[in-house]
Each structure stands twice: as C-alpha cells, then as structure tokens.
Amino acid sequence: MQLLIYILLYPILWCISILPFRLLYLLSDIIYVLVYYVLGYRKKTVRENLALTLSNLTQQERLVIEKKFFHHMCDMFLEMIKTMTISEAELNRRYQFSNLEVYTELEKKKKSIALLCAHYASYEWAVSMNNHITFEGFAIYKKINNKYFDKLVRDIRSKFKATLITTKETIPTIRENNKNHRLGVYGFASDQSPKLSAVFHWSPFMGIEVPVHTGAEMLAKKYDMNVIFLQTKKIKRGFYTAHFEVLTQNISQVPNYEITEQFLKLVEKQIEEAPEYYLWTHKRWKHRRQSSADLG
C-alpha cells in the first residue's frame, strides 16, 4: 500500500515542483481556500493556541493572524515540494544569509556546532546553508512512516549536501562522529512539545510554563559543541533572510538549561514580531502547568 500511494502521488508532486513560482503561488491561494474554508484543517488547534498565547490581542486581531498563518502554511508546503527540482542558484537567491561570517568564524574553532532553530518562516529552506559551509550538515527530523516518501525526503536534502538523521539516530551519530574526530553542524528544531516521559525541564514559553526539549543543550555539553541560533525572517512571498546568533562558545561554563531558555526567548521574539509565520498547527501547549488564574 505504501508503494501504491507513493506511485500515485509522486507524479503530482513532481508536476507541482516544476511550476514557475507565479503559478505555484496561484495554486497555493486555491489550496488555502480549500484548507481553511472547506476542510478547516486544525483550525480549532490554531485558534486555541493563538487565544492562549496572544490573549492581549482582540479576537478580530487574532483572526487576521490566523488567516495569514494558513496562507503562509500553504505557501511553505508548496515551497517544500518545489525543493524537489529547484536549482541551487535559485534557492540561494530566495533564502539568503545576512551574516554568514558569524557561522564561518565558529568553524575555525574546530569544534562541532549545535544549530538551534524554530518551526518558523521557512525552516525547510534552511537546508541551503549547506551550500556555504565546510562542516558536514546533519538535519535531525522525525522519520516518515511511508518508507518511500522518507527516502524521497532524504534524497532531496542530500541534493543540497545535507544528511538527514532521525531522532533515534542522533545520539549514535554524534557519538560516532566525535569518536572519529569528524566535525559537523547539527540542526535541532527544539521548539515543539516533548513526550512527558522524556521531560527534564519546564520553562515559560509565550508566558506559559511548558515541558521543553533539552537534548540539544545536553548533547552540546557532553560533546563540547559551540551553540548557535538561526533566525529566519520572511521578507516577502517566496523570499527569506536568515541571521546567526552565537549562544555560547564555552558551553561547559553555562549553567544547565540556560541555553534552552535563551533559545526559547529568541523564538518568542520572532513570534512577537510576526506571529503569522509560526507553526501554530502543532499542539505545543497541550501539556502545561496551570496557573492560579487557570484554576479559578
């Protein structure tokens, strides 16, 4: 069945990927109407997340953000498909780095790098970073159930010199690379909700205390990595700029969880500046500690 689904869908995805951007975004507008007004895909979750985290805004203001988010989500989904056939030059033109020298200076330290980022703007096109770096890039992702689509995603990323490793492969890969003195940069999108069974720390995020991923920080400590944050901004439709910010070059001296909390504050700042580009469809706040106000 997995192969049949892949055979049926792959030609459609490929045809979408070869569309010129003008037609791609026209298609995105059509999909937006279907997803938002007809299917109502995760609209309840998005609405609840916005009400919970942006309670200072009016219902009408949050509705505007909600619609902008769904528009952006449809754009981003088609941009992901476009990655199948997009050229390196075109991707570099549409996703640019404003201060790449900050990253390249870290490579000179001859230590592996933990790169933290959020599910914000175009986190998928951040793969273009591999066109500009010397270290091998490892992107950590959740394995796709359909093995044929999982291989497709891996093949697409490898086209841009990125190596995808699943969450289960992360620790063995870093351990083996460290043992062999193989330098790498490891991309962690650490802003989503972890399993409660794997929670070591709770922290405020958008004013709400939630369980947080600490794996990136703990691995960076164990293997003495430099830590950097990648902030992406959407300039206009189909164009993004990314900015690096060094979080530490001496992680052994940083108290536990300080890097994680610093990362969350930077993600909050992104959301506050343009909330419509955050991935609101995830149930990020499904586990939270209730305040006295919540308890009534």
Describe the structure in your own words.
There is one protein chain. The chain is α/β, with parallel strands linked by helices. It is built from eleven helices and nine strands. Helix 1 crosses helix 4 (59-82), helix 2 (21-39) packs across helix 4 and helix 3 (43-53) crosses helix 4 (59-82).
Describe the structure using short key phrases.
single chain, 296 residues, alpha/beta, seven-stranded mixed β-sheet, two-stranded antiparallel ribbon, globular
Show unreliable segments. Answer: none
Q: What is the count of DSSP helices, taking H or I runs of 4+ residues?
A: 11
Structural class: alpha/beta
In the sheet with the most strands, the strands line up as: 1-9-8-2-5-3-4
Calculate the mean pLDDT score and round it. 93
Terminal Cα span: 50 Å
Shape: globular
Number of strands: 9
Largest sheet: 7 strands, mixed
Helical residues, percent: 40-55%
Strand content bin: 15-25%
**Order of helix and strand elements from N to C terminus:** HHHHHEHEEHEHEEEHEEHH
Rg: 19 Å
What's the short story on this structure?
The chain has 11 helices and 9 strands.
Detail the topology: elements first, then pairings:
Blueprint: H1 2-17, H2 21-39, H3 43-53, H4 59-82, H5 88-94, E1 95-97, H6 100-107, E2 113-117, E3 136-141, H7 147-159, E4 162-166, H8 167-179, E5 184-189, E6 202-205, E7 208-211, H9 215-222, E8 226-236, E9 239-248, H10 258-273, H11 292-295
Parallel strand pairs: 1-9, 2-5, 2-8, 3-4, 3-5
Antiparallel strand pairs: 6-7, 8-9
